[in-house]
Amino acid sequence: MIEVHGLSKSFAEPVLRDVSLTVPRGCLFGLVGPGAAGKSVLLKCLVGLVTPDRGAVTVAGETVTGLDELSLQRVRRRFGMLFQNNALFDYLTVGENIAFPLRRMGVTDEAELAERVADRLRAVSLVGFEARMPSGLSGGQKKRVGVARATVTRAEIVLYDEPAAGLDPVTSQKIFDLLRREQRETNATVIMVSSDIDRLLTVTDRVGLMHRGELLFDGTTDEARSSLHPVVKQFIHGEVEGPL
Amino acid sequence: MSTPDEETLSARVGASAFAVAAQVGGVAILTARLARRLFPPRVDGPELLRNLYKMGVRSLPIVGVTALFVGAIMVVQAGVLIRRFGAEGLLGWGAGFATVREVGPILIALMFSGRVGANNTAELATMTVTEQVDALSTLAIDPLSYLILPRVISMVVMLFILTIFGDVLALVGAAYTGQALLGVNVATFWNGLLEAIRVWDLATGLIKSALFGLIIALSSSHYGLTVTGGAPGVGRAVNASVVASATGVFISDYFSTYVLQ
User: Fold this and answer.
1) Which of A82, A230, B116, B235 could bond A150 through an S-S bridge, CB–CB 3.0 to 4.6 Å?
2) In this complex, do B135 and A69 lie within 8 Å of one another by their Cβ atoms?
């Protein structure tokens, strides 16, 4: 379970304002909102990449905020994460990128590594891409390799920052279906940030909507669809007229 | 009472002083954090070997060419005086003393900064802005142990070794240039050099080279890790890193020359 209590963070201006949120174990939670709402910063606070000015993050009963670097490493072993920019290591091949988290976890059997890499590449429809370098991939292919790397360890908590950005509609739906399937198989706790609201709502259990650093809505997918909150209503239904 | 122009000037000077202090402080903090990872040593072995090769072996050609010409230039500059006073026997001492104590370490360090330091900043800055450094952290890998410490150790070790290599080539260049331009026998050059140069002179240059390597490594890593502003920020970081490294090399050379007299 992930619990966020009164989280606030400012850089030049406030990006998170008193955000509180609970994501139960095994829940696929969708986090949506317009650009610069603070969604990515919130994800980074959860893994201790950004230190909040106020508030606390608790992961499976352990408070993440205030931990030193070594203790944070222990907590981070629970996580898998896909970054908005994919964050593929550009000096490693596609296969090495996907195998990297496994090697760091101590998997040394080359046959097992190759099998698990091939399995992930099959899942994201990139069979045979093991030897390619990230610089030779399209944006969508990089995204899919990022998804493969984020899911290869079957972590108990997985954070996806825009997993389908830049992908065509068919591939986007495939990625969302894959992530839902993975989540059901592993019962992982997943938080997924996406602007593709229509597809996101087809796979999530709960949805949170952020706007200007505040969490304006937190509820089930059905509650989000029927919400009368003007910002939520406009965003969920893609209306042109409204407060956004 | 100060005029608005004076106030603007003093504000700019103050802001610049704060900016310099912030960068020096940043390098000091990075140094302390790296030092903590040395006791007990937490260095990624494969990364260390990869960087030793990339930074050292692949710098040999540029350092070799630089060193050969440094030796030759020392002789060309000394040639006028050597001829005027007929002091051919002092050519080895003059060229050698200046090369191993001062000119060799400085020029090789500047070449190293331009090639390896700038590349280090560009690589780290690109990794920072594309969230690769954050990705390492989320994979429970300490970026300082995995990325930075191997680079710092490699730069210190390799600049030290490259300076030895460069000193030898510079002296060879000086000896043969002396023979070609001034007619000073190579044996006379080496005799003059070996009679006058002490081990401490050689050690002074090598101690300086290790110090320069440390400054280039810390400066280039600091600017790489603290980059902001996407791709344009990477360019600014490389520029700032090269300037800071060169400035650091000259300032540390001045003080180390006093200390190592």
Assistant:
1) A82
2) no
Cα-based distances in Å from B218 to B141, B163, B232, B241, B247: 20, 19, 22, 10, 13
- Block residue for tokens 């023979």: B179
Nearest one of B206, B243, B251 to B19, comparing CA atoms: B243
Q: Nearest-CA residue of chain B relative to A146?
A: B135
**Residue-wise pLDDT tens for chain B (261 aa)?**
567 777 788 888 888 889 889 989 999 999 999 998 888 888 888 889 999 999 999 899 999 998 999 889 888 888 778 878 877 778 888 888 888 888 899 999 999 999 999 999 999 999 999 999 999 999 888 899 999 999 999 999 999 999 999 999 999 999 999 888 888 888 888 888 888 888 898 899 999 999 999 999 999 999 999 998 888 999 999 999 999 999 999 999 999 998 887
Which residues of chain B lie closer than 8 angstroms to A90, CB-CB? 126-127, 130, 132
| Domains annotated on chain A, with CATH | 1-78+155-244 (3.40.50.300), 86-153 (no CATH)
| β-strand pairing of A206-211 with A54-59 | unpaired
B139 contact A CB<8A: yes
12-51 of A, contacting B, C-beta below 8 A: 44, 47-49
Domain spans, chain B: 1-36, 44-259
| Contact yes or no for B66/B159 (Cβ under 8 A) | no
Cβ atoms within 10 A of the Cβ of B57, count?
A: 11
Residue with the two structure tokens 């950005």: A165
Query: Rounded to 5, what percent of chain A is helix, strand, coil?
Result: 40, 25, 35
Complex ipTM: 0.85
